[in-house]
Write a structure and sequence with these properties.
Blueprint lengths: L4 H12 L3 E10 L7 E7 L9 E12 L5 E6 L5 E6 L8 E6 L5 E2 L7 E6 L15 E9 L6 E12 L22 E2 L6 E4 L10 H6 L8 E6 L5 E10 L5 E8 L5 E10 L6 E5 L7 E8 L5 E7 L7 E4 L3 E3 L4 E6 L5 E4 L10 E4 L5 E7 L8 E10 L10 E5 L14 E4 L20 E9 L8 E8 L8 E6 L16 E6 L2 E3 L9 E8 L5 E11 L10 E4 L3 E3 L7 E5 L13 E3 L4 E8 L5 E11 L3 E3 L3 E2 L13 E3 L1 E10 L5 E5 L10 E2 L2 E2 L3 E11 L4 E10 L2
Parallel strand pairs: 6-8, 7-8, 11-13, 21-26, 27-30, 31-35, 36-41, 43-50
Antiparallel strand pairs: 1-10, 2-9, 3-6, 3-10, 4-5, 4-9, 12-19, 13-18, 14-17, 14-19, 15-16, 15-18, 20-22, 22-24, 23-25, 25-26, 28-29, 29-30, 32-33, 32-34, 34-35, 37-39, 38-40, 40-41, 42-44, 45-46, 45-49, 47-48, 49-50
């Protein structure tokens, strides 16, 4: 990359260059033209000039009593000469602050002296911007062609800057136009077509031509061409002019001496200006048409005509001029007139822009471009060389991997290897393929080597052996330190098996109870392995509480309660609405013991029981004492309602007659022996209770009890 840095810097510097003006002094202009004078300007630091940065203008100050005596030219250090003003101004005087630019609106030949302002010169300034080196002496050449009138150059300057007028295209070698329409010169390509409107040309005219022409015929010349499109566009440069009038051009079709059809007419095309665009329209591709070029008012001019976009000459290209044996080559024609005829061995077709050839050995192919009517045949040739393919690379025939294992990139012995997934077709990759081990089976990959050509493809078989599968990882829980046999948890039959516990090898875990990770690793005869783990943990017996023994009215539903667990099993089942829920409903006729067994998330089990005493009457059962000491026994003072539908209040009153506790749910919300957060002293307390039984009758009761701290 470093070697491109100077080029990048140079390009950047050119893009950033600003306009620069160089000024020269003047002197006397010799009279009569016998001793013309050149006035130099030394230019430095500009370098090569072109269409990006080049000559943009020339300014002069001349005092002279008869301007038309003067011929003024600009000459570059390399010798390029462009006329600025040739015998212009008549009897007028002076060039005062006169500047010449290709983009000026006024033409110097059409202006009147004294010349002041900006003008298009008689020549084309862009002719300097052809890549020549601008450094050196530039000369303003001034010639006085007649006696009697004198003058002097006061000063002059030249300016270089961005976006200058472009250099006209190179003038190609072409036959000169004919002076007669009947003998019109065939033009095969207008790419850089150039000629002059010479005084030796005479007027070749007839009434229909005169009527169709947008000007007046003076010294016309003719060419004929075959249309390549319905509309053809051209740029015209008039690079020099004798009379400053320019040229005129007309496109037409028809018969010499007879009626014609004008297809585009332009008069005048001034000298020295930027390229002038002209168009021939209404054409039929393949038909022959005429272009007439004439000096406006008899002017003698040099001109260049360039189509745009400019076609190239006939060319033939190949996608590869050296191909491998048995490989087709694509041949493409361009330029010319667009009608192509091909010759050579192994061609699939002999016409068209693109053809395919199958050379068996080094071969020459040619394309000919012939316009309709046989005008302008042109032939180009190209040689296609054949290279022999190298031998195929060598590689290990069969590679073996276990399913799911990490595979290495394939390898082979050869140069410039290309890797493929198929034996034919596809695009080779220079990166070695890494086989996939996801699916068991045999997969073939292919590799070739390339020198000048590509060899045949060598197959590489990759066998993916199926991986053993002993099962998925598991979690197991033991209750109260019980032991377990883990050897039957996974399918290890037929494999070499090895157990480990917490990363230490152990015998088969037939009778284990220690918590931790037990891992089984198995291998088959191909060395393919699989592992599975068991996370073993211990769990204590779940705590279960079926509630305190209680009282129930015979034949009336009573709700049983149990601590939370995963599964429940109550006995006897026939006395319960659902023996497998946390809080089933029971209906008893006599005293009954209920047992509940619970199972937690780990599968550990525990049991508890509750005794239900059955009575026949309707009342509240209130204890005579309770001990709120936090031992879990008789810590809450409750009233057990039997046959009561609703309790209005259950109150506790201290010895001072103050109510220190009240609830409407004496069974579930009993008194804990505190008042306003303070433990109450031991002693005798009074309780009051009022409710409504299942028959709608009011039940009121009172009594006393002892609190023992």
């Amino acid at each position: 990359m470093r070697r491109f840095l100077p080029l990048i810097i140079a390009v950047f510097a050119i893009l950033q260059m600003k306009a620069q003006t160089f000024t020269g002094v003047g002197g006397n202009i010799p009279d009569s033209g016998f001793t013309p004078n050149s006035f130099p300007i030394q230019v430095n630091g500009i370098g090569n000039i072109n269409a990006q940065f080049g000559l943009t203008g020339v300014c002069i100050n001349i005092t002279h009593s008869w301007d038309s005596d003067l011929e003024i030219y600009l000459i570059s250090p390399s010798g390029t000469m462009v006329p600025l003003s040739i015998q212009n101004g008549g009897s007028g005087q002076n060039y005062t602050n006169t500047c010449f630019a290709a983009t000026a609106a006024s033409i110097i030949g059409n202006a009147s002296a004294p010349f002041t302002g900006s003008f298009t010169p008689d020549g084309y300034l862009g002719a300097f911007n052809n890549g020549q080196n601008a450094n050196g002496n530039w000369n303003l050449f001034i010639k006085d062609i007649a006696f009697g009138e004198t003058g002097s150059l006061l000063n002059w300057s030249i300016t270089f800057g961005n976006n200058p007028p472009a250099n006209p295209p190179a003038c190609t070698v072409n036959p000169l136009p004919s002076n007669t329409c009947q003998g019109a010169t065939p033009v095969c390509s207008f790419n850089g077509f150039c000629a002059s409107t010479a005084a030796t040309f005479t007027a070749d005219t007839w009434p229909d031509l005169d009527n169709a022409f947008c000007g007046s015929v003076q010294n016309n010349a003719f060419v004929k061409f075959t249309a390549t499109a319905a509309i053809m566009d051209f740029n015209v440069w008039v690079t020099s002019s004798t009379n400053h009038d320019g040229i005129q051009i007309m496109f037409f079709e028809g018969n010499y001496g007879g009626s014609i059809n004008e297809l585009g007419c332009y008069s005048p095309i001034s000298p020295g200006a930027s390229p002038f665009g002209i168009t021939a329209a209404g054409l039929v591709p393949g038909n022959i048409y005429y272009m007439m070029i004439d000096g406006f008012a008899g002017d003698e001019c040099d001109y260049i005509i360039q189509p745009f976009p400019a076609p190239g000459g006939l060319q033939i290209t190949a996608d590869n001029e050296t191909v491998c044996e048995g490989t087709p080559v694509q041949l493409t024609a361009s330029g010319g007139n667009g009608n192509y005829s091909w010759q050579g061995v192994g061609l699939t077709t002999t016409t068209g822009t693109n053809v395919t050839a199958y050379p068996q050995s080094t071969a020459i192919y040619s394309v000919t471009s012939v316009e309709p009517g046989g005008m302008c045949p042109t032939t180009k040739e190209i040689e296609i060389n054949i290279s022999r393919a190298p031998v195929a690379p060598t590689a290990t025939d069969t590679l073996r991997y276990c399913q799911g294992s990490v595979a290495l990139p394939l390898a082979a012995n050869g140069q410039n290897l290309l890797w493929y997934f198929s034996s034919t077709g596809g695009s080779g990759s220079p990166e070695a393929i890494i086989p996939s081990t996801i699916t068991a089976g045999i997969v073939n990959y292919y590799v070739s080597q390339t020198l000048d050509c590509e060899s045949e493809r060598t197959p590489i078989a990759v066998m993916i052996n199926e991986k053993p599968f002993v099962g998925s990882d598991k979690q197991k829980t033991l209750c109260n330190g019980n032991s377990i046999n883990l050897t039957g948890e996974f399918a290890s039959a037929g494999y070499f098996a090895q157990w480990s516990f917490n990363n230490q090898w152990i015998p088969p875990p037939v009778h284990v109870s220690d918590p931790g990770i037990y891992q089984l690793e198995v291998k088959d005869n191909n060395g393919c392995a699989d592992t599975a783990r068991i996370q073993l943990s211990n769990n204590s017996i779940p705590r279960v509480f079926a509630g305190n023994d209680t009282i129930s009215v015979a034949g009336k539903p009573i709700r049983l309660h149990c601590t939370p667990a995963t599964n429940y099993s109550w006995l006897p089942e026939n006395l319960l609405d659902n023996p497998h829920i946390q809080n089933p409903t029971a209906v008893v006729q006599q005293d009954q013991l209920f047992i509940v067994q619970v199972t937690d998330d780990a599968g550990c089990k525990s049991a508890d029981s509750v005794f239900v005493k059955t009575i026949k009457g309707i009342t509240y059962y209130v204890p005579t004492a309770f001990t709120p000491n936090g031992d879990g026994l008789n810590d809450i003072f409750r009233a057990v309602p039997v046959g009561i539908a609703h309790t209005e209040y259950f109150r506790v009153i201290n010895r001072f007659g103050k109510v220190i506790f009240e609830t409407n749910d004496p069974l579930l919300k009993g008194w804990d022996g505190t008042f306003m957060g303070y433990k109450q002293p031991s002693g005798t307390y009074i309780w009051l209770i009022k409710g409504i039984d299942i028959n709608g009758k009011i039940v009121e009761m009172k009594g006393n009890f002892i609190l023992i701290q």
